[in-house]
Amino acid sequence: MKKKIKYPVYVKFPGKLLIVGFGSIGQGVLPLILRHIGLDKKKISIITADNLGRDVARKEGIPFKIQPLTKDNYQEVLDQYLGKGDFLLNLSVDVSSIALMEYCRERDILYLDTVVEPWLGGYTDPSLSITERSNYGLRETMLAAKKSFGKGPTAVSTHGANPGIVSHFLKRALLNIARDTGLKTKKPKARAEWGALMRKLAVKVVHIAEYDSQVSEKPKKIGRFENTWSVSGFHSEGICQPCEMGWGTHEKHFPKNGHRHKSGCGAAIYLDQPGARTLVRTWTPEHGNFLGRAVTHNESVSIADYFTVRKGRKTIFRPTVHYAYRSCDASILSIEECFGKNSELQKEQYILMDDITKGMDELGVLLMGHKKGAYWYGSQLTIGQTRKLAPYQNATGLQVTAGVLGGMVWAIEHPREGVVEADEMDHERVMEVIEPYLGTMKGAYTEWTPLEGREALFPEDIDKSDPWQFKNILFS
Ligand code: NAD
After folding, report:
1. Which end of the chain is more exposed for a tag (fewer CB within 10 A), N or C?
2. Does an H or E element contain 206, and which?
3. Nearest atom in ligand 1 to 114's CA
4. pLDDT band at 4, cuts 50/70/90?
């Protein structure tokens, strides 16, 4: 007989929990919530827009209803499930995060999401400006809500894997580099101290460097977009939104098609091209150097903003921060196919799950430009490890669902913080909750730079005075 594992219950929650959206992330996080949060199963409900996950809900004994939220009905629908002291977990697409946050704020309900999502059409509506469609612009709407709400029921913004737990990896990585370079430092407490530490260590660039090597037994089907997580989510951020990055103070070459936003925190820029076709040179311990895609993400802006150091009104330090994502083989073929059809999403969509035969999601932060060159710190999680750790998900999903669980535990433990981003949370508490689900946590230094092996076949326009310029990192 299989021995029943006793899982630690990190926190008790007496209220009701409503999960909005039950796709790959919703299904994956449910068993983790049931294991680690002390709440009455009868108080959980799920609402979605389609049949995805109905079987999982039935198996776990959780009521499941198709009740899509819209601008017009969301208050009325949510009122059927939620009241003061409850928890709204938003894992949907096409539902405005800010509207749900406001709803929760007014009724004293805890909240967590994994992206700042707009209502349906918010990534593609031609009447919107690029700033409005960008993650920079969406994050500004969240910052405005944060400011106007002040302290109140905790609403954790964008706490999955990335955005989410990579912000906690980054703080660990900084402390590791400080230790390994002999910099005596106390663990920073406030935002300004973290920025000062990064500046002292002379980190110039932070990549969220991810290589997803999961493959299916079946080759990619022509005419179908395949991925290891939300296809519509990846299409929105990779193909419909512009490439975005936190723009560092060490950068000497502003990109030809780059733009600054006219208002807001000023930490990031965007390019007149989508991230899924913005290839960048990056590095992870398992694969060495490779090409990733600078797909826009909230953490590229939030990390750059959080670690900005100012003297009076002048910005004196900021790292360049962006995603360098080598998505799974099937998704790369899907992206090419989609661009060939003028960026229109394939009608058929598919998330690789039980058919995955091998592979790993290697997700971490790569800190470059300091005394020891470059340092990667993060999670190496194979599909085999994933299947032993938790049901209903692949390795990519588990890194995200662990983040959702960690964020929920933190929110329940800190219920009056108002709107918070991962960068503002206690990273060690969250790490304690998520680490058992992340496979191997690895830290590795490398002498690799983006100048390695250059100009072997053709002349190139590079800046040898500083390898860590975006100009040198950009491939195309
Ligand atoms: P999915 O595409 O598998 O599922 C989306 C779910 O949203 C479905 O259950 C669908 O029915 C539901 N939905 C769609 N429209 C809705 C509506 N109007 N009302 C209610 N529900 C609606 O997506 P997923 O892979 O589970 O991802 C969920 C969210 O998490 C997405 O926004 C995605 O971008 C985000 N995500 C974040 C991270 C991260 O690391 N931060 C990683 C992966 C996914």
Report:
1. N
2. strand 205-212
3. 41
4. confident
Residue to mutate, 69, 230, 353, 404, ligand 1, most ligand atoms under 8 Å from C-beta: 230
Q: What is the chain's length? A: 476
Query: Within its chain, how far is the Cα of 287 from the centroid?
Result: 21
Where residue 331 falls (left for φ over 0; alpha for ψ -120 to 50; beta otherwise) is alpha
* Cβ atoms of 85 and 14 closer than 8 Å: yes
Using the predicted structure, report yes or no on whether residue 172 has a pLDDT greater than 70: yes
Does residue 2 have a pLDDT over 80? no
Residues 6+ apart with CB under 8 A from 336: none
CA distances from 223 to 219, 230, 337, 344, 379 (A): 12, 17, 8, 11, 32
Residue 3 has pLDDT above 80, yes or no: no
User: For residue range 251-284, what is the model confidence (pLDDT) as tens digits?
Assistant: 999 999 999 999 999 999 999 999 999 999 999 9
d(CA 135, CA 142) in angstroms, rounded, equals 10
Could you tell me the pLDDT band of residue 1, with boundaries at 50, 70 and 90? Answer: low
Question: Please, which residues have CB within 8 angstroms of residue 122's CB and are 6 or more apart in sequence?
Answer: 96, 128, 133, 138
For ligand 1, atom 4: residue with the closest CA: 23
Encode pLDDT of 117-159 as tens digits: 999 999 999 999 999 999 999 999 999 999 999 999 999 999 9
Residues 118 and 96 sit within 8 Å (Cβ to Cβ): yes
Give the separation between CA 101 and CA 154, rounded to whole angstroms. 9
What secondary structure does DSSP assign to 70-91, as a single string? -TTTHHHHHHTT--TT-EEEE-
Contact 210, 377 (CB under 8 A): no
Catalogue all structural domains in the chain, each as residue range(s) with its CATH number: 11-157 (3.40.50.720), 165-393+428-473 (3.30.360.30)
Regarding pTM above 0.90, the answer is: yes
The per-residue pLDDT for range 50-97, each reduced to its tens digit, is 999 999 999 999 999 999 999 999 999 999 999 999 999 999 999 999
Measured from the Cβ of residue 38, the count of other Cβ atoms closer than 10 Å reads: 11
Contact 428, 127 (CB under 8 A): no
Percent of the chain, pLDDT > 90?
A: 99
Type of residue numbered 262: K
**Residues with a CB atom less than 6 Å from ligand 1:** 20-26, 47-50, 52, 68-69, 91-95, 114-115, 117, 158, 160-164, 229-230, 232-233, 400
Helix, strand, coil in percent for the chain, rounding step 5 = 35, 25, 40
Supply 30's token pair.
Answer: 């449910």
Distance 95 CA to ligand 1 centre (A): 9
Nearest atom in ligand 1 to 230's CA: 25
Give me the residue label for tokens 């360098």. 324
